[in-house]
Amino acid sequence: MVETYQPMVGGALSRDSMTLSQHVLKQLQSFGPDAQDLSALMNRIAFAGKLVSKRLTRAGLVEDALGFTGNQNVQGESVKKMDVYANDVFLSVLQQSGLVCRLVSEEMENIYYMPENCPINRYTLLYDPIDGSSNVDINLNVGSIFAIRRQKGDDEDQTGNDLLTNGHEQIAAGYILYGPSTVLVFSIGRGVHSYTLDPSLGEFILSSENIQIPTHGSNYSVNEGNFWQWEEPYRDYIRYMHRHEGYSGRYSGALVGDFHRILMQGGVFLYPGTLKNPEGKLRLLYESAPLAFLAEQAGGKATTGEQPVLDFVPSALHTRTPLIIGSQEDVALVESFIQERQLERPPAISKVS
Ligand code: P6P
User: Fold this and answer.
1) Is the confidence at residue 352, as pLDDT, over 50?
2) How far is the CA of 274 from the centre of ligand 1 (A)?
3) Contact at 8 Å (CB) between 206 and 184?
């Protein structure tokens, strides 16, 4: 009987050979004609991530890579040199791709139009090129966050009003975590998957498929330095955390890393409104909404404290919202403190008409 050849490497090779583009096409097989474009677009985003990762890993050795530019962005935040570098990497890579018609970035006040691309495709990329840039100069993890939307209409007046819609209009969302390894996590609405960059191959290789957030986790991630600025329900929640066993505070100051921990281990990340930023600090279109898309795809939950993040309709490109995101049970616990206080509130005195 002729023996059937048994490959020696088996699973390892098949795992190692499942590249980002192959896996995206595997998911997209049930997608329509846009499959190839979306796969190519994901590859361009991955390429931008490789360039940013390369710069970050050598930042301490490259002149002018670290520190501040001396300018402020539309958010009134001091801009790091790495913010500008990463923003321009995404801009250049996507411009060359011909796949994206418009860009919305934390680092650019207005929509960036690429009319030469519009006849080809009508995608808009919304991104935070470097989230958590305060960590860059101290070699701690940072990330890039992105969302992809299809353009609705021609936007001839260049107001981008079609972008002021809820997060259900996102067709894909994800982030790149620049940590000990560079990991790309994203979803096209068919589950959440992660890919680890193999620098020796220059490829993102599938590392986790169909990631599910545990229904409960011990981590709670919040900047407790803002305690005095919060409304009472959040103070009640933190007091509960302090008085009950089984919880650990974990906060890195970089949303992507803090969320990735929650995605993989469970728990909750929250950035409530404060006296300084009553509407919260995190921007909806390129921070909260993409992560909310991922959280819900992974079986978790994301709320502003008043409504699901994905239902929130922004009034402007850089609208901020409070964010409570993570495991179903842990988000529900935070919400229970909000609801409890709402029940205690005296009924709103109706204005005399
Ligand atoms: P704070 C970084 O600037 C960022 O936008 C998020 O990455 C992070 O979660 C948050 O702000 C940290 O803000 O007020 O705790 O320093």
Assistant:
1) no
2) 13
3) no
- CB of 254 within 6 A of ligand 1: the answer is yes
> Using a 6 Å cutoff on CB, does residue 155 contact ligand 1?
no
89/52 Cα distance (integer angstroms): 7
Give the C-alpha separation, 94 to 100, whole Å: 6
Q: What pTM value is reported for the model? A: 0.92
Q: For residues 295 and 290, give the distance between their C-alpha atoms in angstroms, rounded to a whole number.
A: 9
User: Which residue segments constitute the domains of the chain, with CATH numbers given?
Assistant: 3-209 (3.30.540.10), 219-344 (3.40.190.80)
Ligand 1, from 80, 130, 131, 284: best to mutate by most atoms within 8 Å of Cβ? 131
Helix, strand or coil, per DSSP, at residue 352:
coil
Q: Which helix (H) or strand (E) holds 112?
A: strand 112-113
Distance 244 CA to ligand 1 centre (A): 26
Please give the distance, rounded to the nearest whole angstrom, from the Cα atom of residue 300 to the centre of ligand 1: 21
Q: Is 132 in the pocket of ligand 1 (CB under 6 A)?
A: yes
> Would the CB of 55 count as within 6 Å of ligand 1?
no
Distances in Å between the Cα of 168 and the Cα atoms of 172, 263, 268, 349 are 10, 20, 22, 35
* Cβ 291 vs Cβ 175: under 8 Å: yes
How many alpha carbons lie under 13 Å from residue 240 in its C-beta half-sphere? 13
Give whole-number Cα distances, 309 to 143, 164, 179, 220, 305, in Å.
20, 14, 27, 19, 9
Task: Take atom 9 of ligand 1 and give the residue whose Cα is closest.
Answer: 255
The protein residue with its alpha carbon nearest to ligand 1, atom 4, reads: 132
Average confidence score pLDDT of the chain: 91
The rounded distance, in Å, linking the Cα atoms of 312 and 162 is 14
Which of 75-84, 117-126, 332-341 has the highest mean predicted lDDT (pLDDT)?
332-341
What's the 255 CA to ligand 1 centre distance in angstroms? 6
Question: Collapsing DSSP states into helix, strand and coil, what is residue 213?
Answer: coil
The pair of structure tokens assigned to 59 is 């930042």
Could you tell me which residues are beta bridge partners of residue 17? none
Position 9 scores a pLDDT of 60
- Is residue 253 in contact with ligand 1, taking CB distance under 6 Å? yes
